[in-house]
Structures are given as C-alpha cells and as structure tokens.
Design brief:
By secondary structure, the chain is of the alpha/beta class. The radius of gyration is 23 Å and the shape is globular. The N and C termini lie far apart (47 Å). The structure holds iron/sulfur cluster.
Length: 460
C-alpha cells in the first residue's frame, strides 16, 4: 500500500446511496483511507476528501449525483480560496457507468472510480493529490478483496460481510451486470476469517452480502466448491456470532440445501428478502427472470414448511413495459398469496443501456402510478397486520442506535422490524428481550424484559 506523508488528521466524508453492498464498500473505503491517516467525518464541512458512493438503480441517479456535486463544489472552492485542497471523488455504480462524462461535465471532480477498483484508493489519492485527474472504471480480473486491509470499522453490533459480487443473470431492467461485472465468489476461508475479525470488532450479527448472494459458489477449505448453505453452517459455528442474515437472493438459486438450513441453523434469522419483481409469467419472461410465479410460490411454501415462522419481503416493479391490467392483477395476487412482512415496490423507470430501455408498449405514467398506489396499499396493510401479530410476544432485539425521542433506543427484531423502547444507552450493541406492546405500520414498541422475567415499562 502506498504511503502518503503528512496525511495524519485529515478527514474523509463519504455519502452513500443505495444498497447494503454500497454501505459495505463505503466502510471498506474508510478502512483503506485510515491507512493514509484519514478519519471519517459526519459532515463535508471540515473534510479534506469527499466521496459520493453512488447507486445506479434509482430513477434519475445521474442527475442526483450532479446536483450533489454542484452543492459540494462551493465547499471545495471555499476551502481552496483558503489554501486547503479538497479532493472530490465519485465512486460506485454511477461512476462505473458514466466515468468520463462525469469529469467532462464536472471538471472539478478529482477521482472517478467504479466499485471494483476502490482497493486502489492509495495510488489514486497519490496521483490525484499531484493534480492528475483519475478515471478508473476497469473491472480487473483479480479480486479487490485480495487487497483490502484486515482492519474493520463497524458501527454497532451488526456488520455486513461481502461474500459475492456481480451477476451473470442479465435481467432486462438491471444495470448490475454492466456496473459490477460478472459473478465472483470469495473463498470460504477469506470469508470466515473476515467474519472472525468482525466478531473481534464487536459484531453479534453478520449479514452476508452479494448482488446475487445465493449464487455464491466459493472455494471451500478442502478445495471443493461450497454453496451458500455450507457457508452459513460454517459461519454459524463461529463463537460470538448470534445472528446471521443474507441478502439479496434470486429465486432461481434457492436450492434444496439452502432451504434446509433455514430449518437447521437457529442463528439464521427468520426473515428472508426474496425479490420476485412481478407476479405475471409474461412479464417475468420479458424481464428475463427465468422463473415463473408458481416456482416462487413453491419456494415460499417449502421455506415455510422448513421454518414455519419465516417471514418474507420482496421487490416488485410496477408498470414494466407491456404490463397489462391482468399482469398487474397477477402481481397483486402473488403478494396476497405470500402475505409479506414488508416489501419494496417501485414504478418502472428505464436504465440507459439495458434491454428494457428499448422496449415498446410503455405503460402510461398515470396508469403505473395508480397501480403502484394500489400495490403499496396492499403491502402497507400486510405489513401492519404482520406487526400486529407480534403484540404480546417477547422477542430478542439487537439495539443499534438511540431513537429520536429522549431516552429512546432503536433495535431490530429477528424479523428485521424496527423496535423502539425506553432504555439505557449502554444496551446499544446488545441483544435484549423485549415484550412487544404495540405493532404499527412501520415499527414496533415494547418494554425491556429483565433476566428474571420482569418487564421494565418505560424505564431504563
Ligand atoms: S439477478 Fe439481480 S443483480 Fe442480477 S441482473 Fe437480475 S436484478 Fe440485476
């Protein structure tokens, strides 16, 4: 790793958009930059380096990046008038997709680098500090994971661990295969070592991450190829890990072994995000999902048989090109059949460069908007009904932060619901039993249960 002189006490501000993979990447950038003397900053105001870690999934992603850059440019200019150089960088999937365009349109940006090259930050910072502008959107054949530092910064007791990146599935609406490249799985030894280091740093919960996480096929310690099921079994044996989650999955990769571990490994939390995108077989085909709605229903049924208390969330795209009223009703029906604990739904919007962006039969915006409203009404009803079923239960909650109200803490239930209690800050980073008093649409409230079974109503 290249060393920079006089970098001690510098600060880096990273703004992160998008998925947990980006959160993981931003944390790893902090780990790399700490080797150069940079400390993370909560605000751009006193930062010596500003990184926008971007996501290309959401609508108008590139516009949002340029608008944020315009806002931050004033900060850079102000500092430079006072003789302080501020490095500005755009990272992540927008950087990967728009590399040269970003430096053409925003020439004050010093570094543009894609998600597969941030391990080269020390070299890039060195060059950019010497007034050279960097555009690094390679997808190198060697894994960046080989070059990341062992040290891990984690906040709270819940940590992300990236086990797999990229995707070979080419859903017609998605940019990931273009921005993150082909599928790559880390070795089991690397992952288990990183999981142990996360535990040493205070993690009780680990979320295994990948764009297509259940396509994981990493080399096992004996040279054989491991699937996600074997990896979960092995991670669950690490002392100190209390909870395991994984995201994001594809229905096609829910194999028998993975379904079985949900019934075998208690540490694997009873909540699974399993995107389906549509309930219409015609639309699933147009999306190139290579599964139909009944396969999805069958997987859900088998998972529930394996672990009856398993709750589900999903992603649905509403108003994909060619979606008829009946196709939309098929999505509504699938959602009714599954009964989600939560669910993300979005109005379709084209991503430049994807096959769907050239499809005909666009759904008029007002039609898509009305369908989305109906779909979200259904999901909100399901979510509230699920949260209501938790009233009166006692469940272990991992507290991760202070709530907005005085004396309040927020934590996560096994089903990934936000749970609010009145409690002492020293409980942050701990798993504590909570008696759930009320379920709302988006959260639960409750009271801490002491080890001798007493409920501490509204106290710490
Ligand atoms: S499987 Fe997921 S990441 Fe891969 S192309 Fe489809 S939506 Fe994108």
């Amino acid at each position: 790793m290249a060393c920079m002189k006089n970098a001690d006490n510098k600060k880096v501000y990273i703004k992160t958009w998008g998925c947990q993979m980006n959160v993981y990447d931003s944390n790893r950038m902090v780990d790399i930059l700490s080797g150069l003397g940079y400390k993370p900053s909560e605000t751009p105001d006193d930062a010596d380096m500003i990184i926008l870690n971007t996501c290309h999934i959401r609508e108008k992603a590139t516009d949002k990046v340029f608008s944020e850059l315009g806002r931050l440019r004033a900060h850079k200019d102000r500092n430079e008038l006072q003789g302080k150089n501020v490095l500005m960088a755009v990272a992540g999937c927008v950087a990967q997709a728009e590399g040269n365009y970003i430096v053409e349109r925003a020439p004050y940006v010093d570094m543009v680098f894609g998600p597969q090259t941030y391990h080269e930050l020390p070299e890039m910072v060195l060059k950019a500090s010497g007034e050279k502008r960097i555009v690094n959107t390679e997808i190198p054949s060697r894994s960046k994971f080989d070059h990341l530092p062992d040290e891990h910064t984690i906040e709270g007791a819940s940590a992300f661990l990236s086990i797999q990146e990229g995707c070979d599935k080419f859903c017609t609406f998605c940019v990931v295969p273009y921005t993150r490249g082909g599928e790559y799985s880390r070795t089991a030894v690397e992952i288990i070592d990183e999981a142990k280091r996360l535990v040493d740093s205070g993690a009780l919960e680990i979320t295994l991450l990948g764009q297509n996480v259940n396509a994981f096929h990493g080399q096992g310690p004996d040279g054989s190829t491991w699937g996600l099921a074997e990896l979960i079994c092995s991670v669950s044996e690490i002392d100190g890990i209390e909870r395991i989650r994984y995201t994001t999955s594809h229905p096609r990769d829910m194999d028998d072994d993975l379904i079985a571990v949900h019934g075998e490994i208690e540490k694997l939390q009873p909540f699974l995000h399993l995107p389906v995108q549509s309930g219409s077989d015609k639309i699933l085909k147009a999306m190139n999902r290579k599964h139909d709605a009944d396969l999805y229903r069958d997987i859900i049924a088998r998972l529930k048989k394996t672990r009856p208390d398993l709750a589900f969330s999903s992603d649905y795209i509403i108003g994909f090109p060619g979606e008829s009223d009946q196709d939309f009703e098929d999505s509504m029906q699938l959602a009714r059949d599954v009964g989600y604990a939560s669910c993300y739904s979005f109005k379709y919007s084209a991503r430049p460069g994807t096959p769907a962006a050239n499809m005909a039969k666009l759904v008029p915006d007002h039609v898509a908007a009305e369908r989305l409203r109906r779909f979200q009404d259904l999901i909100n009803t399901q979510q509230k009904a699920f949260n209501k079923t938790c009233e009166g239960l006692t469940m272990p909650v991992l507290f991760d932060r202070k709530g907005k109200k005085e004396g309040q803490l927020r934590g996560r239930s096994p089903y990934f619901q936000s749970v609010y209690v009145q409690g002492n800050e020293r409980l942050i980073g701990k798993i504590v039993d909570v008696s759930i008093s009320e379920g709302f649409e988006n959260s639960l409230t409750g009271d801490i249960v002491t080890t001798d079974g007493q409920i501490l109503t509204g106290t710490s």
